[in-house]
Amino acid sequence: WINGLLDGQQLEGGTLSAGFEMASDDKSRLQLLPLQKLLLGDVAVKAGDDVLAPRLRLSLLPRITRAADHLRVRIDELSLGDGEHQLLGGKLRITQPLPVSADVPLRLSYDLESDVDALMALPPLAVRREAYPLPAAINVHAKGDVEVLGSQITIAALDASIAQAARAAVVRVLSRQAFVLPAAGEAFKNPRGELASLSLRGFDLAWLSALIEGVDLQGSIASADLLLTAPDAGRLAIAGTAPLRIDGLSARMDEQQMVTNLNIVTSPGIDYSAQRLRFDLRQLSIASAGHSLVRGNLAGTVPLATGGKEALGADGRLELDLRALAAQPAVRRA
User: Fold this and answer.
1) Are 308 and 235 in contact (CB under 8 A)?
2) Which of 88, 102, 265, 293 has the fewest C-beta atoms under 10 angstroms from its C-beta?
3) CA angle (15 as vertex; 12, 16 as ends), nearest 5
4) What are phi and psi of 87, to 5 degrees?
């Protein structure tokens, strides 16, 4: 029965069951209350001859409240799976102020968790797994608030993390203020001040190899705490709030070994605009096998605009161990 409402997809098999009661409370709010979970079981989702999900199942506990000044939808105990795999779980809150106005946004609050292994097992993604390999046992958790006003979407709050089983969050992003997503083709009109923080713990650099053609990385970002800010209109800056540490960095480019077993510590800073990119590596330390290769401070500018006033350049003070550096493959070949 639902296929007529879908565009390009078809549902095969499965059953839908639900039970509700209508009630009114002492505040004259009309409520649609669940008597049981809404259940959709063992549905095959197809697009033409392609199977998108062979045994999709959905369960949730919905509640709808209609008051004089708002319509609120609560979805608790949300669970979306395919066969024995749990794809997504969590809860949602949707609040639409009434009457609907061009000045007051709809608000969506969410707290969701997803198993990436289960998602990658779906047929459309499974065939791409070799081209885009991901580490095993990855879990994504995100919670926050989104406001929608016409075509404008505002990220009011965001706390998202990626973790592996029995480990703390490998990556965590936390917004510091609300910001509006730009429409297609428009530039990002960022607000001023602190935008978001990013932290990484034990991030395996090999995960990036699949995204960079011809480059094979080994090692890990042991720790990184970065703050994204907008100092002025059109500028974005990233600064380390604690020293960034990379352990055991090895890199190959086009089958040639470039560096091996480097341990890097620095307090980084990057300042970006359309005209130039500035970087600052303070208290830089590069070592290998217990030997110091590079120590000091380095800053520089990379021009990005053709014909701009900014010039390519760098300055700083570095202490180099040339004998230890010569042991690195890229230097040895030079």
Assistant:
1) no
2) 102
3) 125
4) -85, -45
Q: Which residues of 77-106 are buried (b: 16+ CB within 10 A; e: fewer)?
A: ebbbbbeebbbbbbbbebbbeeeeeeeebe
Task: Give whole-number Cα distances, 123 to 52, 89, 314, in Å.
Answer: 6, 20, 50
Q: Which residues have CB under 8 Å from 2's CB, separation 6+?
A: 11
For residue 44, give the 3-state DSSP assignment.
strand
Cα–Cα nearest to 238, from 202, 205, 200: 200
Structural contact between residues 299 and 317, judged by C-beta atoms closer than 8 angstroms: no
Looking at residue 283, what is its pLDDT? 97
Q: Distance between CA 23 and CA 35 in Å, rounded?
A: 12
Name residues whose C-beta falls within 8 Å of residue 159's C-beta, 6 or more positions apart in sequence. 142, 143, 144, 172, 173, 174, 175
| pLDDT for the residue numbered 268 | 97
Q: Which residues have a Cβ under 8 Å from the Cβ of 127 and sit 6 or more positions away?
A: none
pLDDT, residue 241, reads 96
Contact 251, 277 (CB under 8 A): no
Q: Cα–Cα distance between 299 and 317 in angstroms, integer? A: 9
pLDDT at 1: 67
Q: What is the pLDDT of residue 102?
A: 87
Residue 142: name the closest of 186, 174, 120, 97 by CA: 174
Length of the chain: 334
Whether residue 114 contacts residue 140, with contact meaning beta carbons closer than 8 Å, is answered with: yes
C-alpha closest to that of 199 among 227, 219, 178, 238 = 227
* Cα–Cα distance, 142 to 110 (Å, whole number): 8
For residue 119, the surrounding DSSP H or E stretch is helix 116-120
Q: What is the pLDDT of residue 7?
A: 77
Rg value, the chain, Cα: 26
> Which pLDDT value is given to residue 100?
92
